[in-house]
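Page 47, continued from p. 46.
Same chain as before, 98 aa.
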Amino acid sequence: MITPKQRAELKALANSLEPAFQVGKGGVNDAQVAQIDDYLRVHELIKIKVLDNSLYSAGEAAAEIAEKISAEVVQVIGSKAILYKRNPKEPVIKLKNK
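Result:
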C-alpha cells in the first residue's frame, strides 16, 4: 500500500512518461498482462492508454491488470492509467516512507 505522499511522488514521475501499452477492443488478455508485469519488473512505473474502441474504461482496465499482477493503481485520468509495482530485489524508484 502506498501513502498519499508516495502517490504524489509517483504521479510526478509519471508525468513525463509516454503510454507503454494500449488496451483496445480486444480488452485485457493474459499475454498483455504478462508483458506489463515484465515491464513493471524493470521500470516499476507504467502508463497505459485505453483506446476509444475498447469495451473497458481506463479505471476498469487498470483495476483488472493491477489485480492480476499485484500492482497499485496510482492514478486514472481520462483514457490513461498509471500503475506501480515495486521490484523487491532491485528497486528502481526510491520512495520516501512518509
